[in-house]
Amino acid sequence: MKNSIKKDDKVIYVGSLVISLLIFIWAIFFEEQFLEGTSSLLNLITNKLSWFYCGLMLTFFIFCIWILFSKFRNIKLGEDDSKPEFSNISWFSMLFSAGIGIGLVFWGIAEPLTHYLNPLGVQGGTNEAKMFAFKKTFLHWGISAWACYSILALALAYMNFRKHKPMLISSLFIPLIGEERARGPIGKTIDIFTILATISGIVTSLGMGTLQINSGLNYLFNVPENKLVQVSIIVIITILFLISACTGVNKGIKILSNLNMLLAVGLLLAAMVVGPFKDMINNLFFGMFEYGKALLYENNNIFIKGDWYNNWTLFYWGWWIAWAPFVAIFIARVSKGRTIKEFILGVLFVPSGFCLVWFSVFGTIGINAPKDVALNAIQNVETAFFVIFREYPMGFAISVLAIILIFSFFITSADSATYVLAMIASNGDTNPKISRKIILGSVQSLLTIALLFAGGLKMVQNTSIIMALPFGIIMAFTIVAFVKELYTTEGLIDSRPVLKEVNCEKY
């Protein structure tokens, strides 16, 4: 049995490394063909398959609400007497740091401000444009994103802690295809796609983080903005996140996640102090009202089309789906002992609520800036944060804190992804070899460099959308498999005590 596991390990591990190496060679040495190939795939997806992404995200949301109120809500993710491994604070910190990361700082000002100045269907710079900006930003970063993570993480935690199956996406297919096939070529293919989707999702964040760190250092300290500096940033942070990943979940990852949360809260509070607090509160509540309507009505329209939706909504849906495997496996790993109800409430609403507050605060700061400054800021989204805060008290100190936070997010996202990649490549072993963490962590950094060289920010964004397609199909089947498993093994959960009572009386 031991030898078969090692053989299985090598199939997934070597297969994912070979494909990653081919992509790296293609991007670096055949840049023109790489750009043409990815552009063709992207056009196919945006023109023909955008409905699939939108429909899938809507399905995730509906499923989470259903299971929250279903008869399965009190089932433990583990044995009936199991207890949570981590405190609520550490749990929230880890799932937040792994699940959002660099994007909050990168888009905190840039996205609401861009939507405000260049909205869809209304005049820019108006009150209607402001509501449009917050509604769409909340939609992109709110419950929909966390529903995507929740559904996969819940199924994984259930199959691992309650059914004692390996912490692998292929384990979720056991109810549909049987355990033998899930451990065979079909399962290995699923797990290889999981690794590739994970790498593409994290590469998007690492690419954005690298560009924003470089832009911030250039804006604040005149550090050159070029490929050499960007590669240096990636190398330094790669060393740091590998050290964290190699120390394990209970040490480096947990400690850094808690520190990360403190830094994020500190930056948020500093922005509240220097910004227009009353406007922030108003935008939060009015934005939530519009967002609520959008969830009920607009989000049901899965046949959205046009450049605006392709550049924004479709990109986010692809990004969340691409991030789902590694975030879900990591969240599942730290969620043992919680009930399904507690899990959904914690994962779906707490982080998304923090995101809404975050974008209300930083979006308001951007929108309330002088118009000429705002127009200048959105010319380059990497520097939007720093351009806007130059207009506010303590702007320089807040900008420095933001760069530190990006570094911190960079490390916590990458160390979580590295841990998950090594775990998948080790047949679901929750204590993978350090050598695999180092190799797979280095692979994601090398691919970040390759994609930045090949096409910059746009290329790393497009990669998420493309890789989300095969994994989105996998996720659709996991929902069916999870529901089947629940009804097969837990379906009589409410009636079992009654049956036992009847049997006792009979005898």
UniProtKB/TrEMBL annotation:
Gene Ontology cellular component annotations, sorted alphabetically: plasma membrane
Bilayer-crossing regions: 12-30, 50-69, 89-110, 138-161, 190-208, 228-247, 259-277, 314-332, 344-367, 396-426, 438-457, 463-483
InterPro entries: BCCT_CS, BCCT_transptr
Membrane protein topology class: Multi-pass membrane protein
Compartment(s): Cell membrane
Recorded superkingdom: Bacteria
UniProt keyword Transport present: yes
Keywords recorded for this protein, A-Z: Cell membrane, Membrane, Transmembrane, Transmembrane helix, Transport
Presence of keyword Transport: yes
One Pfam assignment: BCCT
GO MF, any single term: transmembrane transporter activity
Family: Belongs to the BCCT transporter (TC 2.A.15) family.
PANTHER family according to UniProt: HIGH-AFFINITY CHOLINE TRANSPORT PROTEIN, HIGH-AFFINITY CHOLINE TRANSPORT PROTEIN-RELATED
UniProt name for this protein: Glycine betaine transporter
